[in-house]
Each structure stands twice: as structure tokens, then as C-alpha cells.
Write a structure and sequence with these properties.
globular; two-stranded antiparallel ribbon; 10 strands; alpha/beta; 15% strand
């Protein structure tokens, strides 16, 4: 199993590799552009070269990028939907430049238009995206969500519906998040509940579609529909759930990525990863 965390690209994408090494990561997740702005600063050739060189030298890979939270390809508003599509396309292109194999995307919010209408918008934009990408090597991963507000993706059936609607099946997958699925009402703490949840996921979506697993405890209780991440063992999910995950042999090729709170010294990542690795039997 590969263990890692989301690391900042402040100062350039190459710096995320060094931060990953400092945090004891085998692999990392990054934003490939600013998460809080639509505009993307052009990738500099020197930084790209250093990015690839450091991966080789430090032995830290990049398992996935995460798209900007501004993107909402489920939006019924034509202007926002188109702006979101163009931003997503740019992020996919940057993933291809940086040879990042996956890009995680929150399916988005239907903002009152209804779940089916929102899901259809997401599928439509995804098909348009793949039609307009040249020599794409990146897999788009729909992330399971907590179900807050009008967010889509809090049911495994939503993810299955989207995958069924996407024509390019070779470049579509899923990212699970322990906090999100717990908040959405899928039990993972008790071993029996974990088995039931993963069987349901396999039956509805398929474990072969699972490419990334975000590992987070939850500040909020079960089925709260609230997305609030906490350090492992310090939230409502509890440490046993993470033991279930790391010892599930079906997930041996699925990178486990922390998105837990942390300071600049990255010691929180170091401790959470130490704890996670200690659960392997």
C-alpha cells in the first residue's frame, strides 16, 4: 500500500514533492493550480523539470491532483457551468503535462435544479471534456461526497449513474473519502458495517473503479451530511475504521491520501501517517 497526504504547491509544483518527503509520504495529492482562483499561473519549464527530477531523487510520486473547489459542472447557470468546464479542461491538460495519472473532482451541486438534472449536466460536461482533450492520459475521478446542501455524489448510485453515462470508460473512476461516506450514512467503523459498505460499493459501482481513498476522521457524527475532517482517531469515525481499510487486501493498489488538518511543519502528517501505518497487520 502507498500512504500519502495532500501537500501544498506554494512556491511551485516541485515544492510539493519536498513537502511530501518531509511528511514521510510514499505518494502525494496536489492542486495543480491555485484552489481559490479561476486563473492558473502558467507552469514554468524549470519548475516542471525540477518536479520530475525530485520525484526520482526523493522517491515520492504524485498519485493524483485535486480540482479546484470553485468548479461546478452540475450548475444550471450557463455562465458558471461553462466557466467550470473550461477550468476543468485546463486542469486535465496540466495533469497531462505533469504526468499525473488522476484528477479528483467533486461532482458538484445542482443548486435547486434537482439531482437527476444535475447529474446529467455533469455527465454531459464530462463527455464534452474527453471529446476535446488531445492524447489524454489522465483519469477523472468522481469523489463521493458527504451530501451537504445540494451536493451530488453522496450516494454510490450517483457515481454509478455518472459512470454509466460517460462514454470514455477507460478514463473515468472514483475517489472515496472516509469522512464523506461516513457523514453520508455509510458505516465503516464496525468490521461488519465496513464489509457491508464495501460490498454495496462493489455491487453498485465496482471496486475496479476505485483509484484513490482519502483518509480522514470526522468532526461531525454519523449521517450528519457535513464535511468536516479531523485527525485520525480523534473524531466520530474512530481508529478501528482505518484498520479495516489498511488491511483490506482488495485495496492494496489504491493510494491512501490524508486530507487532515496540519501546520507548516507537517508534523501532523507525520503523526497521522505513522498511526495509519501502525494499523497494518
Amino acid at each position: 500500500m502507498q500512504f500519502g497526504a495532500h501537500e501544498s504547491i506554494a512556491g511551485g509544483v516541485a515544492n510539493a514533492i519536498e513537502r511530501g518527503k518531509k511528511a514521510t509520504c510514499d505518494t502525494i495529492q496536489i492542486f495543480n493550480k491555485s484552489n481559490s482562483q479561476w486563473r492558473a499561473v502558467k507552469l514554468k519549464p524549470d519548475d516542471i523539470d525540477r518536479y520530475f527530477k525530485l520525484q526520482e531523487e526523493l522517491g515520492v510520486s504524485v498519485a493524483t491532483s485535486h480540482s479546484s473547489y470553485l468548479i461546478n459542472i452540475a450548475s444550471p447557470d450557463p455562465a458558471l457551468n461553462d466557466k467550470s468546464y473550461r477550468s476543468l479542461k485546463e486542469e486535465m491538460e496540466r495533469c497531462n503535462t505533469l504526468k499525473i495519472p488522476n484528477l479528483v473532482l467533486h461532482p458538484g451541486s445542482h443548486v435547486g435544479s434537482g439531482e437527476e438534472a444535475g447529474l446529467d449536466k455533469v455527465a454531459e460536461a464530462t463527455n464534452r471534456l474527453f471529446d476535446n482533450l488531445d492524447n489524454n492520459q489522465c483519469t477523472l475521478l468522481y469523489e463521493a461526497t458527504a451530501g451537504q446542501g445540494t451536493n451530488l455524489g453522496y450516494k454510490f448510485e450517483h457515481l454509478a449513474y455518472l459512470i454509466d453515462m460517460v462514454e470514455d470508460k477507460d478514463h473515468i473512476g472514483v475517489c472515496l473519502d472516509s469522512c464523506h461516506i461516513f457523514a453520508a450514512g455509510y458505516g465503516i467503523t464496525d468490521p461488519k458495517d465496513y464489509k457491508k459498505t464495501m460490498k454495496h460499493f462493489d455491487d453498485v459501482v465496482g471496486l475496479d473503479r476505485l483509484r484513490i481513498f482519502h483518509i480522514n476522521d470526522s468532526k461531525q457524527p454519523f449521517e450528519s451530511k457535513k464535511d468536516r475532517h479531523e485527525h485520525l482517531g480523534q473524531g466520530h469515525i474512530g481508529i478501528e475504521a482505518f484498520g479495516n481499510i489498511v488491511n483490506d487486501k482488495r485495496l492494496k493498489n489504491v493510494p491512501l491520501i490524508l486530507e487532515t488538518p496540519k501546520g507548516e511543519d507537517l508534523q501532523d502528517d507525520v503523526e497521522n501517517l505513522r498511526l495509519l501505518r501502525s494499523l497494518v497487520k
